[in-house]
TrEMBL record:
CDD domains in UniProt: OAT_like (cd00610)
Sites where the protein binds N(2)-acetyl-L-ornithine: R142, T281
Subcellular location, principal: cytoplasm
One GO MF term attached to the UniProt entry: N2-acetyl-L-ornithine:2-oxoglutarate 5-aminotransferase activity
Organism whose genome encodes this protein: Trinickia symbiotica
Binding-site residues, pyridoxal 5'-phosphate: G106, A107, F139, D224, E225, V226, Q227, T282
EC numbers: 2.6.1.11
Protein name, per record: Acetylornithine aminotransferase
Keyword Amino-acid biosynthesis assigned: yes
HAMAP family found in the cross-reference section: ArgD_aminotrans_3
GO cellular component: cytoplasm
Length: 420
């Protein structure tokens, strides 16, 4: 019997306050449904922030977890293991990559990618070629290096000097990119769809311009596919729908369906610059995580599953568009597959969190992507019935927020009339 009774208030007593979690505690999940500690059910439109691509407690993943858990969990990188070798071969067969490095998170995958890019530049061109180009509103992780490369200053402020040689440009601005990328540039890192920045897709012409500029100046092009990868956009990786192939790709989130694992994928030529001892990790590529990820990749790469993502995404966009028109709610609905952002109109500016809170009251787990965007990233295999039910609960939440706004507006008008 567990001797420690806990509830949501326990968080405030025992945890470092870098998060502000919802007032309920999820304790069990099955498919696209979650139950909290009070037994209440929720439809999950968050996917653990684009992580649980195959839903909660997927039977095939549970089977692999049990089987590998009874064999081997960890041996360190003084040894290799069979599951990580199988996972690397599967990912390389599906992508441009010829070499893989496994870590525990997207931030670590990006850290490895950025370090590799600088190592390549130093060894090929000299120490003066070290500038990294990133983009405003981008997000690449929470280490000091990756948070500095990310284009949201609020996440890097208050930690002292940031690493030098990082430049931020406007996203989707071809002219600015062509002007900035030059002999000093060692790498350009870009998200094919900015997730945390508001679910903003890159213009394919912009990505082509980045590829051309990198080729012209001997820079490495890195695609951060931590959020867009592993089927989220209806393609196994988003780059596959852009006509542009990066030199390095980073992936995490859905790769382990909730088990911590990330990867940096690259070419044989670039990988050769990471010699023995240059970079490392204790847990990265452990057999337990690799076995689970291997099964995730096998399942998600199925063309039928990816077509299902596109179909569900089209349905979700259509239904959101109808709700937006009914309530005058959305300025724009954008994204691909099942990574969708709905930007609020001026009337609801800054109130995305209000809709998330109201949704929770009606049994729906929902995300934001900044103060003005509702973000939808459900399971890639969410049942049609759960999608319908989630949208029904969303409608109730919208009615609640819109109704409260109308009442506040009427009260303000009445006050103004009385003041006259």
């Amino acid at each position: 019997m567990n001797e420690f009774a806990v509830d949501r208030r326990t968080f405030d007593d025992v945890m470092v306050p870098v998060f502000s979690p919802a007032p309920f505690i999820p304790v069990r999940g099955q498919g696209s449904r979650v139950w909290d500690s009070q037994g209440r059910d929720y439809v999950d439109f968050t996917g653990g922030i684009a992580v649980t691509a195959l839903g909660h407690a997927h039977p095939e993943l549970v089977r692999v977890l049990r089987e590998q858990g009874e064999r081997l969990w960890h041996v360190s990188n003084a040894y290799t293991n069979e599951p990580v070798l199988r996972l690397a071969k599967r990912l390389e067969a599906l992508t441009f990559a010829e070499r893989a490095f496994f870590a525990n998170s997207g931030a670590e995958a990006n850290e490895a990618a950025l370090k590799l890019a600088r190592r390549v530049a130093v060894e090929r061109h000299g120490a003066e070629k070290f500038e990294i180009v990133s983009f405003a509103q981008s997000f690449h992780g929470r280490t000091l290096f990756t948070v500095s490369v990310g284009g949201q200053p609020k996440y890097a402020e208050g930690f002292g000097p940031v690493p030098p040689g990082i430049r931020h440009l406007p996203y989707n601005d071809i002219a600015a990119a062509r002007e900035a990328i030059g002999p000093q540039t060692c790498a350009v890192i870009v998200e094919p769809i900015q997730g945390e920045g508001g679910v903003i897709p890159a213009d394919p012409a912009f990505l082509r311009a980045l590829r051309e500029a990198c080729d012209a100046h001997g820079a490495v092009l890195i695609f951060d596919e931590v959020q867009t990868g592993v089927g989220r956009t209806g393609h196994f990786y988003a780059y596959m729908d852009t006509g542009v192939t990066p030199d390095i790709l980073t992936t995490a989130k859905a790769l382990g369906n909730g088990f911590p694992i990330g990867a940096m994928l690259t070419t044989k030529e670039l990988a050769a610059h990471f010699k023995v001892g240059v970079h490392g990790t204790t847990y990265g590529g452990n057999p337990l995580g690799a076995a689970i990820a291997d099964k995730v990749v096998e399942l998600v790469s199925d063309p039928a599953l990816l077509e299902g993502v596109k179909r569900r995404g089209a349905t979700l966009i259509s239904r959101l568009d109808a709700l937006g028109k009914r309530f005058g709610l959305f300025k724009e609905i954008r994204g691909k597959g099942l990574l969708i952002g709905a930007e609020l109109t001026t009337a609801y500016e800054g109130r995305a969190k209000d809709f998330v809170n109201a949704a929770a009251e009606h049994g729906l787990m929902l995300l934001i992507a900044g103060p003005n965007v509702l973000r939808f990233a459900p399971s890639l295999i969410i049942a049609d019935a759960d999608l319908d039910e989630g949208l029904r609960r969303l409608e109730k939440a919208i009615e609640q927020v819109a109704g409260a706004s109308a009442e506040a507006s009427q009260a303000a008008s009445a006050t103004n009339v009385a003041a006259r």
